[in-house]
Amino acid sequence: MRRVLADFFAGLGPALLPWRCLVCTDPGEGALDLCAACRRDLPWNHCACARCGLPLPRPAPRCGRCLGHPPVQASTQAVFRYAPPLDRLLPRLKFHGDLAAGRLLAGLLAEGLAGAPRPAALVPIPLHRSRLRQRGYDQALELARPLARALALPLLANALQRGRATAPQSELDARARRGNVRGAFRLAPGIALPAHVALFDDVMTTGATLAEAARLLRRAGVARVDLWVAARA
Ligand SMILES: [Zn+2]
Ligand SMILES: [Zn+2]
C-alpha cells in the first residue's frame, strides 16, 4: 500500500519543495503534502457496508437497507468518510481548482483502492456541460485520471455523457434526488464496455447519481458494476 503511494508520487517527477502539509501546514512526511499526524488522523472508511459503503460500527457484507433493497452495484469502495480533512480538501479541488489538493487526494485514493477487486475499466461520473463551463474542470475526472494511471487501469473518460440538465443534488432531499437524476446519463455512441466496470465519483451522499449511472451500465450489458468514491457522506 505504502509502495503504491510512493510510486505514485515518484511518477510525478520533481515538484516544488519542501513538501507542506495541506491540512495544517507542518512539514510533509516524505514526498507527501501531508504530515505524519494528519495522515494518522485520516478518516479511512474501513468499517462500512461492503455493498453501499455506508459507515457502520464494524464492517459488514450488507447494511439493513441493502438487505431490504439490494442496490444495483455489486460493491462500494468509499475510501474515506466525508469528515475532516476531506470536507476541506475536496471542496478545495472542486471549487478552487487546488491541484495540490487533487494530487494528494489521488495518491491517497490509489493507496486505499490498491487492494480492491480489480475492474477492467474505470468510468468517471461526468459533470454536466453547463457546470463544466462555470467551473472550468471536472473534479471527478481530475481525480480519476491519476488514480487510473497509478493502478494501471483503463480510464473510459467519455463513456458516460450527461443527458438532460439536472438541478444540483445538494439542493434536494433524498426522494427528489432520485427523480432528479432519472435519465441524467447516456452512453457514448458505439462505446464498448467490459464486463466489470468501476464507476468513480468524488463524493457519494444518497448514491442516487451513481445508482442511475450503474443502472444504465447494467442495462447496456455490463455484468458487474462497482462504485469507487473518494468520500461517503
Ligand atoms: Zn498536518
Ligand atoms: Zn449498505
TrEMBL record:
Matches recorded under CDD domains: PRTases_typeI
Native source organism of the sequence: Arenimonas soli
Note the Gene3D superfamilies from the entry: 3.40.50.2020
**What is the protein's name according to its record?**
Amidophosphoribosyltransferase
Q: Which residues form the Double zinc ribbon domain?
A: 15-67
Which protein family is it in?
Belongs to the ComF/GntX family.
